[in-house]
């Protein structure tokens, strides 16, 4: 017997990060009670996003325009490139409004345990961007995890033959912390205190 649409809604909501079965039920009940406003608006927003979502071919950001709004911004400094693991990290750094350069999303981080190798990430396209000669500084904004730091070291090794300054965010970031969960003040301090990678 198939599940009812309400049960399907609860199951779908429960798949979202931060929502367990109880929170999903509460969210579903709220949407059902406010179906003319909240449920309708959510359905419209989800439909619009599904129709217009695109991965930026330049940086890997997710947006509704191609290239994305970050890459098409003429006020950004083309000589600065910030490398992040995921789109959420790009959004967190961009939200701080302290980094005026371009971004590159790797699509994850190296992890032997999970079988993620350099071929699974966008490291080759990063090397190509640096090879173009426009970039003067690469800021490695990896999460302060073992895998994040391993990824940063690998990228540093790949870029060592290019005339580019390589820096990383200051280690004031909490170990095990992820950029998307940090407040703007912590991100600002980490960007200001970035240092060369030795």
Can you describe this structure?
- It contains seven helices and seven strands; from the N terminus they run H-H-H-E-E-E-H-E-H-E-H-E-H-E.
- By secondary structure, it is an alpha/beta fold.
- The protein has two domains: 5-52, RecR Domain 1 (Helicase, Ruva Protein, domain 3, Orthogonal Bundle), CATH 1.10.8; 62-196, Dna Topoisomerase Vi A Subunit, Chain: A, domain 2 (3-Layer(aba) Sandwich).
- Strand 1 (54-55) and strand 2 form a beta hairpin.
- Helix 1 crosses helix 2 and helix 2 (21-33) packs across helix 3.
- The model has no long low-confidence stretch (mean pLDDT 89).
- This is Recombination protein RecR.
- One of its GO terms (molecular function) is zinc ion binding.
Task: Lay out the secondary structure.
Elements: H1 5-14, H2 21-33, H3 35-52, E1 54-55, E2 62-63, E3 77-84, H4 87-95, E4 101-105, H5 123-131, E5 137-141, H6 146-159, E6 165-168, H7 184-192, E7 195-196
Parallel strand pairs: 3-4, 3-5, 5-6
Antiparallel strand pairs: 1-2, 6-7
Q: Strand order across the biggest sheet?
A: 4-3-5-6-7
CATH fold type of the largest domain: Dna Topoisomerase Vi A Subunit, Chain: A, domain 2
| Poorly predicted segments | none
> Rg from C-alpha positions?
20 Å
What is the name of the CATH class of the largest domain? Alpha Beta
Number of beta-strand segments: 7
| Shape annotation | elongated
Q: H/E series, N to C?
A: HHHEEEHEHEHEHE
What class, by secondary structure content? alpha/beta
- The count of helical stretches stands at 7
Helicity, in percent?
40-55%
Report how far apart the termini are. 61 Å
Could you tell me the strand content as a percent range? 5-15%
Question: How many discrete domains?
Answer: 2
Please state the second-level CATH architecture of the largest domain: 3-Layer(aba) Sandwich
User: Averaged pLDDT, please?
Assistant: 89
Sheet bearing the most strands, described?
A: 5 strands, mixed
InterPro entries: DNA_Rcmb_RecR (IPR000093), Rcmb_RecR (IPR023627), Rcmb_RecR_Znf (IPR015967), TOPRIM_dom (IPR006171), TOPRIM_RecR (IPR034137)
Pfam family, one: Toprim_4
GO molecular function: DNA binding; zinc ion binding
Keywords: DNA damage, DNA recombination, DNA repair, Metal-binding, Zinc, Zinc-finger
């Amino acid at each position: 017997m198939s599940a009812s649409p309400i049960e399907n809604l609860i199951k779908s909501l429960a798949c979202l990060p931060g929502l367990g079965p109880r929170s999903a039920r509460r969210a579903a009940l709220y949407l059902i009670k406010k179906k003319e406003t909240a449920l309708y608006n959510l359905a419209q927003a989800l439909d619009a996003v599904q129709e217009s979502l695109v991965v930026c071919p330049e940086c890997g950001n997710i947006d509704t325009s191609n290239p994305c709004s970050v890459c098409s911004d003429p006020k950004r400094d083309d000589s600065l490139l910030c490398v992040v693991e995921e789109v959420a990290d790009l959004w967190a750094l961009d939200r701080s409004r302290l980094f005026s350069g371009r971004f590159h999303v790797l699509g994850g981080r190296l992890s032997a345990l999970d079988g993620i190798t350099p071929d699974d990430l966008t490291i080759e396209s990063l090397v190509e961007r640096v090879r173009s000669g426009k970039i003067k500084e690469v800021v490695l904004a990896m999460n302060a995890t073992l895998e994040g730091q391993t990824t940063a070291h690998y990228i540093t090794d790949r870029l060592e033959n290019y005339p580019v300054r390589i820096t990383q965010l200051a280690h004031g970031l909490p170990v095990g912390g992820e950029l998307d969960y940090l407040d703007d003040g912590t991100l600002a301090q980490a960007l200001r205190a970035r240092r060369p990678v030795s």
